[in-house]
């Protein structure tokens, strides 16, 4: 079985590919440039015979995938612009995110006669209603949709526009399926913040992906940041959810939240328990305050546990493994 993973050089894709390779799958990664191939190969040393790449310079062009689908039996579409401070919402986020999903689906239908499953790396961003704020007492689940309109998203702040891009892209995927009824299933994985280790050691702390950057800001901060996404998933759990879903056909065709409660205070509380040496380098805040009832919305991440038997990594372990790698990088830079 060969799984096509788009955006193969990304943070989340790195762990997904690692798990697929370990489990014996062949992987074809798509990237935008030669340079990304070299970096991705380096991350998966030892699996050269299972791993191949295709350069797709523009993922919004169906024909760009022409040579990528040979032998492919499943698609994990993870590539999507993840920028929280765009100069132009529409051209940098909304359009490429939507066209990226639709083109990958079209390409799978046209060039991938053996494709049986298409799994979209969506986001909790397509579930959350940002306009309702922390919405205490509300619990989000897979039945919720981010209700923002395209017109609102065009002029919204960066994080809101990013969330909208994920919602429009996922919606476009479900709509495409309704219209085209291809020979493969479509499923979406919707995690909030994804934290945890990068597949390779971090070499440049100034070029972190958005979620690792967000958590790393704790180190220099003088106070606990306000909650943004009140949820997180360990990147290894996100990878496990993708692969388990691929292996369980009866669970496909659905949306799955992968995630549990997160706020920066609780993250700090857990991190200091795991790595007491960080005390003094990160703000202490008010230990325990993050878990007070009635402050933040909650996230129901139980569907994926029931359907796929996913076992969530506790926040403390995710924080420890994230910060261990960040501290190693500090030592080197
Ligand atoms: P990264 O920034 O590490 O990876 C993003 C990947 O998408 C890279 O391979 C990047 O390629 C590719 N990409 C971005 N824009 C384009 C574009 N216009 N055309 C083609 N490829 C593009 O981010 P993550 O690994 O964190 O994110 C991966 C996916 O997971 C995204 O879909 C993101 O929305 C989603 N997600 C991430 C969460 C998180 O907290 N990290 C939470 C929930 C969802 P290049 O290197 O060439 O730019």
TrEMBL record:
Presence of keyword Heme: no
Highest taxon in the source lineage: Eukaryota
InterPro entries linked: Epimerase_deHydtase, NAD(P)-bd_dom_sf, NAD(P)_dehydrat-like
Organism field: Tothia fuscella
Domain NAD-dependent epimerase/dehydratase: 3-259
Keyword terms, alphabetized: Oxidoreductase
Protein name according to UniProt: NAD(P)-binding protein
GO MF, one annotated term: oxidoreductase activity, acting on the CH-OH group of donors, NAD or NADP as acceptor
Family stated for the protein in its record: Belongs to the NAD(P)-dependent epimerase/dehydratase family. Dihydroflavonol-4-reductase subfamily.
Pfam family, any one: Epimerase
């Amino acid at each position: 079985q060969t799984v096509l993973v788009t955006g193969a050089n990304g943070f989340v894709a790195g762990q997904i590919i690692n798990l697929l390779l370990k489990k014996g799958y062949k992987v074809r990664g798509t990237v935008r440039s030669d340079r990304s191939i070299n970096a991705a190969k380096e991350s998966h040393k030892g699996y050269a015979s299972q791993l191949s790449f295709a350069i797709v310079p523009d993922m919004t062009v169906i024909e760009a995938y022409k040579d990528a689908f040979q032998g492919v039996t499943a698609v994990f579409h993870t590539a999507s612009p993840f920028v929280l401070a765009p100069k132009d919402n529409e051209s940098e986020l909304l359009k490429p995110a939507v066209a990226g999903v639709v083109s990958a689906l079209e390409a799978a239908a046209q060039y991938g006669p053996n494709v049986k499953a298409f799994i979209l790396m969506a986001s909790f961003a397509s579930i959350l209603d940002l306009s309702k704020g922390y919405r205490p007492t509300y619990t989000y689940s897979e039945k919720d949709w981010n209700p923002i309109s395209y017109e609102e998203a065009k002029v919204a702040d960066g994080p809101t526009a990013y969330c909208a891009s994920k919602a429009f892209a996922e919606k476009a995927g479900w709509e495409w399926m309704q219209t085209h009824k291809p020979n493969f299933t479509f499923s979406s994985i919707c995690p909030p913040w994804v934290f945890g280790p990068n597949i390779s050691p971090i070499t440049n702390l100034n070029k972190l992906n958005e979620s690792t950057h967000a958590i790393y800001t704790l180190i220099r901060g003088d106070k606990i940041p306000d909650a943004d996404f009140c949820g997180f998933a360990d990147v290894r759990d996100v990878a496990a959810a993708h692969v388990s879903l691929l292996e369980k056909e009866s669970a496909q065709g659905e949306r799955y939240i992968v995630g549990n409660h997160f706020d920066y205070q609780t993250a700090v509380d857990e991190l200091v328990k795991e790595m007491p040496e960080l005390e003094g380098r990160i703000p202490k805040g008010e230990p325990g305050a993050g878990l007070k009832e009635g402050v933040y919305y909650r996230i129901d991440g139980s569907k994926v546990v029931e359907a796929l038997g996913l076992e969530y990594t506790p926040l403390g372990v995710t924080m420890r493994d994230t910060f261990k790698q960040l501290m190693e990088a500090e030592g080197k830079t």
